[in-house]
Amino acid sequence: MDANGPLHDLLDGCRRLHAGGLLAASDGNLSVRLPNGLIAMTPSGVPKAKVRLEDLAHLTLKGEILSGRPSSERAMHLAVYRAVPEAKAVVHAHPPTAIAWSLARPELAELPSDGLPEVILAAGRIPIVPMAIPGTEAMGTNLLPFLPAHRLLILARHGGLCWGEHLDEAVGGLERLEQVAQILWKAEALGGAKPLAPSELEALRALRAKLGPRII
Predict the structure, then answer these.
(1) Contacts by residues 199-207 (CB-CB < 8 Å, ≥ 24 positions apart)
(2) Distance from first CA to last CA of the chain, Å, rounded?
(3) What is the C-alpha to C-alpha distance for residues 147 and 45, in angstroms, rounded to an integer?
(4) pLDDT on residue 3
(5) pLDDT per position as a tens digit, 77-105
(6) CATH number for the domain including 93?
(7) Cβ count within 10 A of residue 90
(8) Domains in the chain: how many in total?
(9) Within the chain, what is the greatest distance between any pair of CA atoms?
(10) pLDDT of 199-209, one tens digit each?
(11) Which 3 state secondary structure label does DSSP give 162?
(12) Other Cβ atoms closer than 10 A to 207
């Protein structure tokens, strides 16, 4: 078994998000919970397409930095890991269309995706977390009311965040978020997205509950 497997997964996640246009320059941050309980996180100020194994920072669940220079937005990651024992990975990226929804429609409490059966089954509701100044502790505390019920979130005026039981789940959540946001944007341009009937929503949400909480 490769002891560095989770770390290589972290690098793969960085490149996947960068290639998908969800990260620019040194934006965003990714982390994994290691088997020894420590958190490995992407470094501050390094473009995600160029992060190397030796660049990764390591810190404790309490936030003590053991090596490297972790992201200044680490409060979000630590808040998730502390509140959700099953969380093994946290990904924060800047999906453009998802951010645009929070800019243009600040009154929204969640992404209006109740017309998309696949989203309901794969992710459930996607709440919009109130804005916090980047790098502050509020980035973590603002998440707490949404945990552990929600794994995929929009951070108002800032980006998206997904936690999962493995890195693929968390990275896939951000990819899905941007795809959904783009579909809804195009629907708005065509006259507005129409929700499913209440009975259909009820049936889909019941099926989602049976499928479990993972982001699919």
Answers:
(1) 200/117, 201/114, 201/120, 204/117, 204/120, 204/121, 205/120, 205/124, 207/121
(2) 26
(3) 28
(4) 59
(5) 999 999 999 999 999 999 999 999 999 99
(6) 3.40.225.10
(7) 28
(8) 1
(9) 53
(10) 999 999 999 99
(11) strand
(12) 12
pLDDT tens column, 33-57 = 999 999 999 999 999 999 999 999 9
Instruction: Tell me whether residue 154 is in a domain.
Output: yes
- Average the pLDDT over 2-23 and give the result: 91
Cα radius of gyration rounded to whole Å, the chain: 17
- Please give the Cα distance from 153 to 191 (Å, whole number): 26
Residue owning tokens 């129409």? 194
What domain range includes position 50?
5-211
3-state secondary structure of 168: helix
**CA–CA separation, 190 and 212 (whole Å):** 33
Angstrom distance (rounded) from CA 143 to CA 29: 16
User: How many CB atoms neighbour CB 35 within 10 A?
Assistant: 10
Beta bridge partners of 32: 40, 89
150: in domain: yes
Determine how many CB atoms are found less than 10 A away from the CB of residue 103.
10
71 within a domain of the structure (yes/no): yes
Q: Flag whether 216 is in a domain.
A: no
CA 68, CA 71: separation in Å to the nearest integer?
Answer: 10
DSSP 82-141: HH-TT--EEEEE--HHHHHHHHH-TT-SB---TT-HHHHHHT---BEEPP--TTSTHHHH
Using the 8-state DSSP alphabet, how is residue 14 labeled? H
